[in-house]
């Protein structure tokens, strides 16, 4: 153990570190793998995205994860087994990516693994008296470390909760260090399963920075497509939604939840925005007989509304901000057109304009969180609820 700790210490002190960041989101379309080079830390961080790919999941693996995903009652044996299986699958995909990029595993210093979220339970969602915020990501870090031979940092969200946060969103930490720019107010909008954004002030005052979930991004649309359109996992190019018409009664029912009115920062997940949520909204609006195309069109407008209204609330204090997009939802042309139509005062760009591939952004952010922990640094965000100034990630040694 002493030799391993000494080796870990030497790697953490390197002037330039190679860190692989991993992200597997609620869509479960694959594992995002980002190989990054880091120099420095904190506000002096220099980062380069060297390689990126999304490793494909098998249909069997995807079904196994979905069998325990976002459900209040599951087979506990499968949760136990999939904690290991997710890690083994991720380790195999990492090994393949490293070889494909022409590296040896020994050249990579660290892995930063987000894991696979299977349940997210902030107090605002579970509402059980006397119980804390909770979240659970599976994909054990020890298994990744042993099967890749690379020191692995994982389970980042637990420290956030332990220090008073809700475990999400964590983008605020990386967004501030990577993307802040003097003289330009920025909104970093990520449209994944859940849509969230980070506000970055042009005066670089960390105490003003905040990140918040705003509502469903792709999760409701993806879940509906997977149930009603065999062989499809998402509505590519909004082809289905474009054939439908928005139903105002259903849209109103979808947006009636108190989450949309809650103050920032807030967090949510597919535990709330599920097919059961849609079914209840259809019952309340008497719209059970809508065509699948009309439902998809309405779900797309629901996602757009949550984003639009949240950004409008933030705009009260801003002038001429620039919005930078990332996440799978940015590829939905109908969703994007709705955002641009309702937010004409905002300039829309993507993180590619900031030299980070949009689809890689979340994986890169977890690599940065690992770099901050390895450097022993933490940015002070002020004494604010929900944004603790902490280092995150448990450390797993390969031997």
UniProtKB/TrEMBL annotation:
GO terms, biological process: 1,6-anhydro-N-acetyl-beta-muramic acid catabolic process; amino sugar metabolic process; peptidoglycan turnover
Metabolic or biological pathway, per its Swiss-Prot or TrEMBL entry: Amino-sugar metabolism; 1,6-anhydro-N-acetylmuramate degradation; Cell wall biogenesis; peptidoglycan recycling
Reactions it catalyzes: 1,6-anhydro-N-acetyl-beta-muramate + ATP + H2O = N-acetyl-D-muramate 6-phosphate + ADP + H(+)
EC number: 2.7.1.170
Role played: Catalyzes the specific phosphorylation of 1,6-anhydro-N-acetylmuramic acid (anhMurNAc) with the simultaneous cleavage of the 1,6-anhydro ring, generating MurNAc-6-P. Is required for the utilization of anhMurNAc either imported from the medium or derived from its own cell wall murein, and thus plays a role in cell wall recycling.
Database matches in PANTHER family: ANHYDRO-N-ACETYLMURAMIC ACID KINASE (PTHR30605)
Family according to the record: Belongs to the anhydro-N-acetylmuramic acid kinase family.
Name of this chain's protein: Anhydro-N-acetylmuramic acid kinase
GN (gene name): anmK
